[in-house]
């Protein structure tokens, strides 16, 4: 069970990451508007197993379904007590995607993912580009497909966003990395390019 004080601390850590990393480094050029508009819901899951987490995920999808985007544009489902291993987290995503299919949410909502040990395929754990998806906790980010399509249509270079993000994190000094990502292993330092 996540008590109120712990939930508030976890939410504050996620808010700091969202503001310092996602907005501060402009990793998502579409995030500023919903954050500034108070349209980002941060929900802390108490799950310690797959069944409970799937139940929480379904509840958050239903919550988004019941709210107009002007009220809740997107949800960050934070998982502090389950899936600390990135490979386990990645395997769970198959179950999460199956749940979206089962309940008719595929094509309506999309999952983006963040994890303290996030690692893109084909990279080494210490590669700087992994920082773009590293967060203080495992997170399932529920996005509205229609909003994504609208935002991408209005962006001058949507295909260039990942490369720009990689350049931003590669330019960080070790001190900046420690300040922005205090939850990483203290010995972590991506290789110089």
TrEMBL record:
Pfam family, one: DUF1415
InterPro entries given in the database record: DUF1415 (IPR009858)
Protein name: DUF1415 domain-containing protein
């Amino acid at each position: 069970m996540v008590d109120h004080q712990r939930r508030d601390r976890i939410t504050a850590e996620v808010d700091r990451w969202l503001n310092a990393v996602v907005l501060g480094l402009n990793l998502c050029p579409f995030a500023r508007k919903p954050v500034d508009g108070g349209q980002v819901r941060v929900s802390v899951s108490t799950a310690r197993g797959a069944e409970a987490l799937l139940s929480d995920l379904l509840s958050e999808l239903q919550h988004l379904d019941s709210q107009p985007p002007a009220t809740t544009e997107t949800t960050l489902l934070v998982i502090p007590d389950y899936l600390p291993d990135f490979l386990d987290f990645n395997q769970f995503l198959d179950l999460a995607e199956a749940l979206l299919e089962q309940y008719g949410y595929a094509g309506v909502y999309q999952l983006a993912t963040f994890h303290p040990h996030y690692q893109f395929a084909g990279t080494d754990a210490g590669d700087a580009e992994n920082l773009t998806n590293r967060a203080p906790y495992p997170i399932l980010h529920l996005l509205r497909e229609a909003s994504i399509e609208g935002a991408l249509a209005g962006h001058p270079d949507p295909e260039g966003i990942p490369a720009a993000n990689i350049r931003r994190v590669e330019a960080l000094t070790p001190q900046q990395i420690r300040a922005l990502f205090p939850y990483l292993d203290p010995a972590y330092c991506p290789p110089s390019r």
